[in-house]
Amino acid sequence: MSLEYSAARGADLSDNIRSVEREIAEASPPSTSRPRLVPISKLKPASDIKALYDAGYRHFGENYIQELADKAEVLPRDINWHFVGALQSNKAKLLASIPNLFVLETLSSTKVADLIQKSLSSDRVSPLNVYIQVNTSGEDAKSGLDPLSASSDATATIATLALHVIRSCPGLNLLGLMTIGSWEASHDPTKPNPDFTSLKETRQHLQRILKEEGVQHSDLELSMGMSADFVQAVKEGSSSVRVGTRIFGERPKKNA
């Protein structure tokens, strides 16, 4: 897996990501920290990541576990990897073996949490961050747990998973919540995105439940916003945005 890239490709990638950063800066509410920008390099060569790494970037994300493992093996070890794809339980051990994995963004079951906890290396310096994935749009094609409401209690699925991670998985750190907005909402910037509103409300309800359960936990991050809707996500308080095609260009079709 080659890490060599042309000067022209490096310049294009730098221009693209700086353009995204300018839009993030313009959209960021006053007196708030800018959200983390995570370039998603799905199906793009490791050399693209190396080009942005050489330009000073350290957070990158992947959708496919084997692709992440292969790239992590050859790229610098101080990269902070985000896994943003669906994780099957039989791949939990492979994911946990990546030493510089920063966060699993798609946790949705206690089974997977337990498998990762069991598989984490004893040499790992800090807990592995996790986001709980929330299916805010209710679409069958999307993964994630149902959002919380004002009537939700500690038996609600998200709350159960959050409490399990906090109480039973010392190798994991509940960093926040993640969602993927619907196509329709993501392409209508004229009004607040209902999926982002739902995620913010879910965070509010979850924090209430955790407090009622006697759990002291810092503010939960929100990972929301991708290439089509990251500007709106930033305006609505996203902590971390995942941008792929706006930085790397259109992706090739995945081989069957």
From TrEMBL:
Classification via Gene3D superfamilies: Alanine racemase
Per UniProt, the keywords (alphabetical) are: Pyridoxal phosphate
What residue stretches are annotated with the Alanine racemase N-terminal domain? 50-252
Q: Does the keyword Transmembrane apply?
A: no
Q: Name one GO molecular function term.
A: pyridoxal phosphate binding
Modification sites for N6-(pyridoxal phosphate)lysine: 42
Asked if the keyword Ribonucleoprotein belongs to this entry, the reply reads: no
Cofactor requirements of the protein: pyridoxal 5'-phosphate
Q: Which family does it belong to?
A: Belongs to the pyridoxal phosphate-binding protein YggS/PROSC family.
What exactly does this protein do? Pyridoxal 5'-phosphate (PLP)-binding protein, which may be involved in intracellular homeostatic regulation of pyridoxal 5'-phosphate (PLP), the active form of vitamin B6.
Q: What is this protein called?
A: Pyridoxal phosphate homeostasis protein
Source organism per entry reads: Papiliotrema laurentii
